[in-house]
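step=encode ok
step=design start
structure_in=
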């Protein structure tokens, strides 16, 4: 089967093909304008050579300005954020976890004694094996429990726990069990069944 084109159709086809080839060739040969280069400026430091009490920030790297002030966690160590996993041992106690959390914080735990010593000796709950990210103050409070009040001696950097007075008065006392009274033999009355048997 052969295709037969009429002279008008063949001419339109040839003109379209020529236009398409011309556009393709011209777009491929097109060049971009030359890039304008600016002369390089010398790098000038943004901070003076001597210490300046008015400098609030310094350039640190190419795109970073760093404020010249301590972080909140550096000023108040109880605000530092910690993320701690207490080492798993079969004998881990609450006291061990408190000491481990305080290990690199700058604080120490008070000498154990008093009512808090019984809390320190309790086994560490599994929920407390991983703490964080939390503020140090909150992590210590979680380990001790909500009944205990965290007290910080900033001068000595000691962390202690005290039980508030209202918590002591409302604390649950162990039930001593039912009261058992024993009658002494002298307490037997003359009308009791024991005296009737003797008669």
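sequence_out=
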């Amino acid at each position: 089967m052969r295709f037969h084109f009429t002279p008008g159709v063949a001419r339109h086809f040839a003109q379209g093909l020529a236009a398409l080839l011309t556009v393709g060739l011209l777009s491929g040969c097109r060049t971009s304008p030359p890039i304008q280069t600016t002369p390089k400026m010398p790098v000038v430091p943004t901070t003076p050579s001597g210490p300046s009490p008015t400098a609030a920030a310094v350039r640190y790297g190419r795109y970073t300005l760093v404020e010249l002030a301590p972080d909140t966690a550096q000023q108040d160590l109880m605000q530092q954020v910690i993320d701690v996993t207490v080492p798993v041992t079969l004998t881990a106690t609450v006291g061990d976890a408190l000491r481990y959390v305080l290990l690199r914080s700058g604080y120490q735990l008070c000498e154990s004694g008093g009512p808090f010593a019984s809390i320190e000796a309790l086994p560490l709950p599994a929920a407390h094996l991983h703490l964080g990210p939390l503020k140090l103050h909150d992590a210590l409070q979680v380990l001790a429990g909500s009944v205990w009040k965290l007290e910080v001696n900033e001068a000595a950097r000691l962390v202690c726990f005290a039980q508030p007075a209202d918590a002591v008065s409302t604390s649950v006392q162990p039930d001593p069990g039912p009261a058992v009274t024993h009658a002494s033999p002298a307490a037997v009355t003359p009308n009791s069944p024991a005296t009737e048997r003797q008669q």
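step=design ok
step=annotate ok -> Residues 184-188 have pLDDT under 50 and may be disordered.
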